[in-house]
Amino acid sequence: MLQRSLIFCCMLLALACSSSKVSRQDAAAGKTQLLKNTFGTYGAPPRLASGRVNMEQLLAELKELNVTTYHWLIWQNENDWDDLQLFLPLARKQNIKVWVTVVPPTESKPIAKMSSEPYQMDYLRWAQEFARLSLKEPNLTAWSVDDFAHNLKTFTPSYTDSCLKAASVINPRLSFVPCVYYRQITPQFAAGYGSLLDGLLFPYRAESAGANLKDPSMVESEIATIRKLFKPGMPVFVDIYATAHSRLGASTPEYVKQVLEYSKLYADGVLIYCHQDPVKSAAKYNIIKEGFNKR
Fold this sequence. Notes:
The structure is a single chain. The protein has helices spanning about 1-35, 55-65, 80-95, 125-135, 155-170, 185-195, 220-230, 255-265, 280-295; strands at about 40, 70-75, 95-100, 140-145, 175, 200-205, 235-240, 270-275. The protein is α/β, with parallel strands linked by helices. The chain has a single domain (about 25-295), classed as Glycosidases (TIM Barrel). The radius of gyration is 20 Å and the shape is globular.
């Protein structure tokens, strides 16, 4: 009788472990599927005189650009978190997926004028809130931290893991795709963080050639170098500087066009930094529209 009980307990344990493994595999597959076909713009939405996001205008522009994804930044207005919750169901009706970014300590108060409100640098809370919101609005598919690798004293592997586990308990299909620059994507970084990430948001700046916003020719080689450091299939999303960089200056429309074409060939998706005004930045806006309509 005791032997039968032991056998039965072992069978239950094996079944539980098998179910857990299948569940993890299903969640990973779900993330991968939701991250596919990512083409969109980031931040800088049109705003009303009140400072709130002009939802109608933003959605009209995103539809014209033929995006699949809009990357929402919580940093430019104290109501950005509230506006995100209003935007998601509207975007869902247009079949637009949404990513969301919060800023790290190096871009928060007192260093910067704004923090990501309302939870500021409580990234565990952000992870949980994003997961809860993504259950309600399933087109919220990924969250990110800007300048992630500039802030590894905060985002240690253990702290990052605790945030991601807290989110996964709520919604295991919400992806984490932090912003990491080429020079920071080292073998040490890959060893410490590779198993925690669902993808990399890679702002292209030709850093293997000294960093500039003029040379689009390094897209293929830099992406290939990144891929070698991580597990097979790790998605790499290129972030293209359409808006000027504080140190490297402005990019040209032709540069944006060429980086976009290379990124479509070699990356797993493309996001434009930042969303361009169709009047003030008409040349770049139209290049992005043409590029996204020729996927």
